[in-house]
Sequence to fold (81 residues):
Amino acid sequence: MKIVLLHEKRLGPIPTDIQVIENWGDVEIYSPAHVPAMIQGDHVYLEGSPDAFKAWLKPFDGVWVGEGIPQLQKFKIMHVA
Fold:
């Protein structure tokens, strides 16, 4: 499984069973519908098993995942169940 993620500090370190394919560096996104409205983190492309992602991200109340190409990335909240 591969995903593009805004890796915020609150998510802690990326687990060793998830590989960083690309790290496009620091990015800030603005979402007036969320608090805080400005979210900052690393823009990363990750690969790992669905179970690895679930174990890592399920404790958080939503994570920002990307859609589209990195230069014009749009992010949306994903809740892991």
User: Anything to note?
Assistant: The helical segments are 50-57. The chain is about 10% helix and 45% strand.
